[in-house]
Amino acid sequence: MTKDEHIASFKYSVLQHARKHNNITYTCKVFCLSRTVYYKWLERFSKLGYLGLQDKEKAKPRMPNQIKPDKEKIILNYVIEYLTHGPRRIANELRQQDVTISETGIYHVLCRKQLNHRLDRLFYAQEKSDNPVVTEKYFREIEKRKENHIHAYYPGYLFCQDTFYVGSIKDLGRIYQQTGIDAYSNFGFAKVPKPFQKEIKYFWGYRNFVLSDALSELPILEETKPANIVDSKVIIPQLELAKDRFDLNIRAVIADAGLDSEKVLSFIINDLKAKPYIARNLRREKDLKVSSTGNRICLAGFEMLYWGKYKEGNRTRVKFVCPIIHSKKFRKEHPFCPWMHPQFVKGTGCFAYTQVLSEDIRKQIAYGTPKFKKIYNLRSGCERIFSRLLDLCMQNPSVRGLRAISNHCTIAHITVLLIALTAARTGNKDKIRFVKSFLPNI
Question: What's the predicted TM-score (pTM) here?
């Protein structure tokens, strides 16, 4: 539907609403209209029908003082004979021939015919004259007005590049624009490189990912990454490395809701043959308005139409579209959007996506059972591990940079393991986690 059709449909729906409720005041209040506008639409609809609701095209303005066609023809004929004369000279010469036209009126005629420049009048005279006078200046102007074209026989045959100085900006310096154009396809692009100065980068910290034993509360593997790396990207390589390097028989994996993803759960259950004790991420279960058939409900309360599935990376999403725009049957009953959504006014209609979550893998996890809660409570050992590491200067390290921080964290973990090994070999197995007891002056 075009914009004019949408406007006519809206006006028609207003008239139908008033006819249905038999209350013009109520209709005007609902649609925020004045009664004057309503009666204007009603009058046009009663006279011209549905076409009367469309917007009128603006009529061309009338110019009562415009020069008449016969005098305009006299001016053009004079221009062909004396093409170098301007508006004032033309007005004076025509006055001697008993033709009175003002200088301004002649100028307006020349502008309307695009003859207000001498060279334009020269070309006009050459076209209209029976015996044109060809001059050298005429040939020079023709060469200038010819369309310049560089012959290129295939894309990439000839590439044109230029640098343009944009200007100087305070605190940035000089700005240049580099432009490149392919001569065959006329495809071009431009780039504004960064000024020659120090580039400031902001970094928001680091994250230390630890794979630990739940019973002894000792680290097995650790890795330091930038803070923008999420847990789900690190856990699978860590589990594979721990299984291959130490030949561990992993029976269960305990983690918080940050690892509640289908990829991680599938790896734990199918590849490791272990049980996942991972909290469910409630953010994946948004309270969306859905109909009995599973379709989304729009803001206006209408059931949206199913429009297929789309796969983006590792996730699959279902698309729903506006029923008014994409269904003729629905549009007959509801010709307009009660909310007058901006997408509806544009003619595209609103749309929504729903992510498809595979619940088969999660059905194998016994959430809420006493066994699940009991084993999941062992996850608090991770908090105690990091509490001991904070005693080893991990909270405020004296070094900077990802590599230096990574080495600093590795040394802290090695220190914790050395303390545990010393406690075990000295017969103090109950004190393998007591860092302060062995290093009181740390």
Answer: 0.44
